[in-house]
Amino acid sequence: MQKILKNSWALFLGMGLIMLAHGYQGSLLGVRAVKEEFSLTATGFMLSGYYVGYFIGAKTITGLISRVGHIRVFAAFASIASIVVLMHSILINPFTWFVLRVITGISMVSIYTIAESWLNDRSSNKNRGSVLSIYMIVLYGSMAIGMFFLNFSSPLNFQPFILISLFMSLALIPILLTKKKAPTFKKITGMSLKELYKVSPLGMVGSLFYGTAQSALFSLLAVYAASMNFSILEISIVTFLVAISGALSQWPIGKFSDSFDRRRVIIYTTFAASFFGLCSIIASGSMFFDGVLGSSKFWFYISIILFAFASLPMFAIIFAHTNDYITKDKFVAAGAGLQFAFGLGAISGPFLCSLLMNIIGPNGYFVFLIFFHGLIGAFGIYRMRIRDTQDNPDSQFTPMPQTITPIGMELNPITEPIEEPIKPIDETVVEENKIY
After folding, report:
1. Which residue has the higher pLDDT, 184 or 268?
2. pLDDT by residue (tens digit) across 77-126?
3. Which residues on adjacent β-strands are paired with residue 21?
4. 142, 153, 314, 421: which has the fewest Cβ within 10 Å?
5. Is the CB of residue 257 less than 8 Å from the CB of residue 317?
6. How far apart are CA 346 and CA 212, in angstroms?
7. What is the four-CA torsion angle of 321, 325, 330, 334, rounded to 10 degrees?
8. In a domain, 424, yes or no
9. Structure-model confidence comparison of residues 165 and 417, the more confident one
10. Residue 343 and residue 211: Cα distance in Å, rounded?
């Protein structure tokens, strides 16, 4: 563990600062949109821009890294993300913010890809699981802490945008000053949706629906809380609780899925998430009276903690379930295909959820989450009747962040690293060096 931290502390520090800014920015923009009286539909459209950019960047960044190099690309996109944050405070309208969110999405997926390929290059089969665990702690922990910076200044001021830009810029320093050489980029091939569905229908459909729900969960959580008249501190608390609960639940639910039928675990957890989403609606009704929030939000906090606990490990379980039906050499390609399906769903999530919130009110947020989690569970029950469970000794649950890229899938300790081809020795050279 000490060797990992010694060799990669600059990268972890840089990613920690970036996720601090990223967590802060996501909550800030949602609250600011409510304060600026953007319509819920416009807010959802604007926030969906991040996932449009994420999807575009994931398909194009590999070629850019190959041509320019890891460090230059990291510096470029961290700088772009820093500039874009400041532009949010100058150009305040939903369409402009949508374009800026697209650029932010491209920048963030580029940064994730660089960080994860770098970590994979520095890890071995013996410590890959530890590296991924530290990476998850840095991502979730920094993002959760960043949400408390909402209390730094009013979202209507320009100072919060400057602070986010400052964190982004500071993240460049440890990366640019490191002595370690950048890794050799290894191209990852993916799987088409047709191939993925043939291998694992539940894996592909589950990733698609889960991406739709998950993007709405994080994009509109602060919007929901602000619409329900939560104070800035209370918005910070609820967003923090969701992030931390999801991080803590990865290991116990994942280990449970290794011991039992993984499809049953997916069905149980997704229906549990739907149930606790319903509990959140009921709890919100008890604290809302004549347009003013009551004093007690205890049961709402409990409900949303349990919702996140059941919901957030699901992508990793879906990934492990898909691996149950393929050979070990296809794990990374299948992971890239699942990310593709997840991204397609994520693009539409915030916009569709905002439409529902606009029709039935703020609790349309939880109705949307309940609906898509219910779809995953219903499809899981259907698939259990079609195909029997298949045991694959190579497949295990591996906790992973929601933002993992196809490159980051190699950090899964049960996947073999992609080796560079060994060039054959030239026969003429051998002949010349023979001793007669």
Report:
1. 268
2. 989 999 999 999 998 999 999 999 999 999 998 888 888 877 777 776 66
3. none
4. 421
5. yes
6. 4
7. -40
8. no
9. 165
10. 6
Q: Which helix (H) or strand (E) holds 165?
A: helix 159-170
Number of structural domains the chain divides into? 1
Tally Cβ neighbours within 10 Å of residue 321: 26
Sign of the torsion angle spanned by Cα atoms 232, 234, 239, 241: positive
Token couple for 433: 């060096």
Beta bridge partners of 289: 292
Token digits for 404?
């993992």
Residue 192 inside a domain? The answer is yes
Nearest C-alpha neighbor of 155 from the set 232, 86, 94, 218: 232
DSSP 8-state assignment for residue 288: E
Count CA atoms within 13 Å of residue 287 on its CB side.
19
Residues 6+ apart with CB under 8 A from 371: none
Q: Quick check: is 354 in a domain?
A: yes
Q: What tokens were used for 429? A: 């050279």
Any domain includes 434: no
Three-state SS annotation for 106-154: HHHHHHHHHHHHHHHHHCCCCCHHHHHHHHHHHHHHHHHHHHHHHHCCC
- Count of CA atoms in the C-beta half-sphere (13 A) of 388: 3
- Cα separation, 66 vs 126, in Å, equals 27
Q: What is the pTM of this model?
A: 0.84
The answer to whether 134 and 4 are in contact (CB under 8 A) is yes
DSSP state letter for 409:
G
Tell me, what's the pLDDT at 190? 62
Identify the pLDDT of residue 416: 59
Tokens of 161: 């945008």
Output the pLDDT for position 430: 44
Q: At residue 434, what are phi and psi to the nearest 5 degrees?
A: -70, 145
CA distance 59 to 105: 12
Distance CA 87, CA 161 (A): 9
Structure tokens given for 209: 């629906």
pLDDT tens-digit series, residues 283-323? 887 555 444 444 578 889 999 999 999 998 888 888 888 87
- The CATH number assigned to the domain holding 104 equals 1.20.1250.20
Instruction: Give the per-residue pLDDT at 435.
Output: 44
369 has a pLDDT exceeding 90: yes
CA distance 118 to 141: 20
Domain that holds residue 132: 2-411
- pLDDT band at residue 216, thresholds of 50, 70 and 90? very high
